[in-house]
Input
Amino acid sequence: MAADRPTAGAIPDPSPETFARTLARVSEMAVAYLRDLPRREAFRRPPEDVAERLLNAPLPQTGVSAEEILAHVEAEILPYSLGIGHPRWWGFVRASAHPVGMATELLATTMNSNCAGSAQIATHLELTVLRWLTELVGYRADAGGLLMSGGSAANFVALAAMRERHLPGTRARGIDARSERPAVYATREVHGCVNRAVELLGLGSDALRWVPVDADRRMDVTALARMIVEDRAAGAMPLCVVATAGTVNSGAVDPLADMAELARREGLWFHVDGAYGAIGAALPELAEQYRGLDLADSIVVDPHKWLYVPYEAGAVLVRDPETLHQAFATQADYLEVQDEDYFNGPLWFHERGPQLSRGFRALKVWAVMQHIGMEGYRELWRHDLATAAELRRRAEDHPRLELAPSTHLSVCCFRYVPAHGDPNAFNRVLLDRIHRDGRLFVSGTTLESTFYLRACIINFRSTLDDARVAVETVVELGAALEREG
Ligand SMILES: Cc1ncc(COP(=O)(O)O)c(C=O)c1O
Output
């Protein structure tokens, strides 16, 4: 007779004692990881043999114990993390994650909630977090949205809502971009995910109209106004203006109020990608730059960036949440719920976005936001801004370094100026040397044909002294590279 539950080899639920031992081991490893993080290289690439072993690992046939798996993780996985969270990890737009977020993430997976919607507590928590984010950036209290995996997915959702509002019925009939000739306005400083969203939504990247920028790399609104008029005259269909509040390249915040006003006059959707920088609206000393943010039709803000929440957590907020329903809601017999059903909750998030099954992202966002609080956040943000300012000051003062003009928020771009040769080629090699050295991690970018080393400081572990260490390291490595000729 077959056993009523599988046993041999199938490794079902461990006993509570065994699970507790596993968790104790995991917590030991997590604590050790964080303790050692500042002392290790900012980035450590996995050795070839480790990578090879993993890549060639066969499909497991016989189960192995949790202890064995954790021993493997400890030996061959944890040491080769990307290193985000190191005090001088300043590449791209990647933030240190708060340990309270890590701990609650474990509980989120313990609950294994599927956040499609329903009356579960996770739905209420997500609504709460969205309301907090709305208030944090000074948006409209009646806005609504959902948590997504990050800024790329959130921008896609926002632009899908835009498409459904401005090209109603597109979901059913599709779009003929050649005859309808949609136009979406942004600057070249916009994040690449906006291009991808425009492509995925069938508008075609030819729909993107690149509006020139001013000396601060902010959208030139006079040029925007002219382009809209010209495009209309030429038979195109202007749909949307995309602003960035905190560009990846330089941290610039587009002139939101002027763009909002023009978009309103022209009847266009006004979208603000504030994945990185929207939180600046919560700092009184920066608030002036963010005037007009509240007039947006949609806003993206990423908790996994400057709110220090572990990956993945992005958010999209839309002035009229009904547009999200128009863009995404689908009917399916297997999902039918009656209004009065016990299972029915305040909202079905799967009707607002592309995912049905959704992880319980809200728990870690809720926990970290609650733990730090707005007073704590303002202090941490100001410290990040001060560290970026210190880095700029040191780069500007150093005779071998050159600071890029006009960087904002917590972005600082600078380069080593070699006595001979092509500085762009030199700094590309220098960037690789910096990565190999491991004392800091920055990324690179090109501003007006000049390649720079680029730091974006959203890292509560960074100190002002880290700016000194970073500059000294870059100068030391740059000088060594020069000596090699
Ligand atoms: C302004 C901006 N928008 C969008 C994104 C994409 O966000 P994610 O990497 O979370 O998908 C980024 C990422 O750095 C960003 O800085």
Observations:
- The first strand starts at residue 144 and ends at 148.
- The chain has a mean pLDDT of 96.
- Residues 205 and 406 are 28 Å apart (CA to CA).
- DSSP finds 15 helices and eleven strands in the chain.
